[in-house]
Amino acid sequence: MKTKITAFMISLLVISGCSSNSSQSVEEVDHSNMNEEMDHSTMNQDEMENEHMSHDEVVSLNDSTGENELKIPSVLEHDDEKGSVYTVRAQKGKTEIFDGTETVTYGYNGSFLGPMIRLEKGDTVKIKTVNELDEETTFHWHGLEVAGSADGGPHESLKPGEEKVIEFKVEQEASTLWFHPHPEGKTAEQVYNGLAGLIYIEDDNSKSLGLPNEYGKNDIPLIFQDRTFDDKKQLNFSAAMNDDGTIGDTLLINGTLNPKLAVNKEKVRLRLLNGSNARNYTFKLNTGDSFVQIATDGGFLNKPVTLKEITLTPSERAEIVIDFSQLDTENELALINEDGSILLPFEVSDQNGKVSEIPGEMNNFSITEEEKSLPVTKKLELFGMMDQVTINGKKFDPERIDFTQQQGETEVWEIYNKPDEMGGMIHPFHIHGAQFKILSRNGEEPPENERGWKDSISIHPDETVKIAIQFKHKGVYMFHCHILEHEDNGMMGQVKVE
Q1: Which ranges carry the Plastocyanin-like domain (predicted)?
Q2: pTM score
């Protein structure tokens, strides 16, 4: 019997995003009274306890039975011979997730989820986005450094039948990114219904490292999403939705129910994406063996980091390598969650696979002395739960610019997660249009496996995080909690890059 997770534990299992004002000087944040009205007027103690009760018994995930081969997303083909034009269509369809039953789903260029888009650093790319849904949507390129007009935030909404072409030059390093919708107030439901896809960026460095790179064979994308299906095996978001984050009992990986992954005795690279609305995952091997992390959200770590587990909050990514040639494969082997739920069983063949290496040096990421000495110019305070979530005491207003920042100028943002009377929740904080560096967590250096480019970061209650961020392009960009229901409830702000 799996342990039930308490409200406090879920506080350590969910996340959020943030906002504020002024680029040249710090907007002062009065932590003592900024949310006084919300603390005492909007939510009294009984109400807060009732709201937290919604997470008192967070459902554990059903174990994967391993009866289905893991689906691997197709690679999106180019529209042209030069290989620089793509078409991405948001569509509604039906998918046989359960044998013999069709579930109504959303997808990109298909009925459920989307293809992988492979980009090369230095390429100029055009993507034609087409909305074939019967509702408005956007196409947000999560982690991609593009102009605000191409980023796909809520201002870039496409009505049913509309299309738009975006064009950009790929200037960032090799990384695993993703794309999903971002319409105001509807992001959680559209992602829940299936709108999500992957982006791989490759560069000369990634090709020279000798890492496992055979897509779908020893380089495996893994999109983790938990869902609740009704008695007709349908995704009924309105019934499942929770304002503090919708959590389900059924895990889908790449849209596959009860998946297993067949591998050879070789090093296998797993690109992990937490694509859930709210659930956090702590990935580990059921044998207790270690693995190696090689990349964060936005690129390779300088050196591989050996771990026995890794936690990802919604929207975070990590690349890990498991050496199946060195593991005891006589007994069952699986990737499991923190509570022991079986996420992905491995079926290891007796075949030796391709020989690949994990080099000792992979990148030249650094935090400069200048960046360490920069003053804090933006302070953000994340607070609240349910539909009473705010950044700096404010809810999202599409007409309000919370910050301004100069293009190409590095600034230090300080983000504080203010606890409430029940302790508070983890908030995953995401900034559009840029990759940032984590300077510190509560004044201390970040752990080794976070010393790389990031676009999303989990922030615990009463934790203060400092990041150094530079925007390479102009435009208006969102920053928010990536618990999608919190985002929809207004835990979001805007920075204008000039």
Answers
A1: 91-205, 234-328, 374-498
A2: 0.90
CA distances from 28 to 12, 31, 179, 232, 377 (A): 28, 9, 34, 52, 10
Alpha-carbon gap, residue 366 to 374, rounded angstroms: 15
- Looking from the CA of 322 toward its CB, the CA atoms found within 13 Å total 30
Q: Residue 444: exposed, middle, or buried by beta-carbon count in 10 A (0-12, 13-18, 19+)?
A: exposed
| Residue 163 and residue 130 in contact, taking contact as beta carbons nearer than 8 Å | yes
Beta carbons within 8 Å of 33's beta carbon, 6+ residues apart = none
Six-digit token pair at 193? Answer: 């219904």
Quickly tell me which residue has 């934790």 as its tokens. 463
At the second CATH level, the architecture of 70-208 is: Sandwich (2.60)
Report yes or no: 194 and 166 within 8 Å, Cβ to Cβ: no
β-bridge mates for residue 105, sequence order: 93
CATH number of 7-57+368-497: 2.60.40.420
State the span(s) of the chain assigned CATH 2.60.40.420.
Answer: 7-57+368-497, 70-208, 219-352
200-230 exposure pattern, b = at least 16 Cβ within 10 A, e = fewer:
bbbbeebeebebbeebebbbbbbbbbbbbbe
Q: Which residues of 164-196 are buried (b: 16+ CB within 10 A; e: fewer)?
A: bebebebebbbbbbbbbbbbbebbbbbbbbbbb
Q: In CATH, which superfamily holds the domain spanning 219-352?
A: Cupredoxins -  blue copper proteins (2.60.40.420)
Which pLDDT tens digits describe the chain residue by residue (498 residues)? 344 343 334 444 443 333 333 333 454 444 444 444 344 333 444 433 334 334 445 789 999 999 999 999 999 998 877 767 999 999 999 999 999 999 999 999 999 999 999 999 999 999 999 999 999 999 999 999 999 999 999 999 999 999 999 999 999 999 999 999 999 999 999 999 999 999 999 999 999 999 999 999 999 999 999 999 999 999 999 999 999 999 999 999 999 999 999 999 999 999 999 999 999 999 999 999 999 999 999 999 999 999 999 999 999 999 999 999 999 888 899 999 999 999 999 999 988 878 888 999 999 999 999 999 999 999 999 999 999 999 999 999 999 999 999 999 999 999 999 999 888 999 999 999 999 999 999 999 999 999 999 999 999 999 999 999 999 999 999 999 999 999 999 999 999 999
Sign of CA dihedral 475, 116, 453, 341: positive
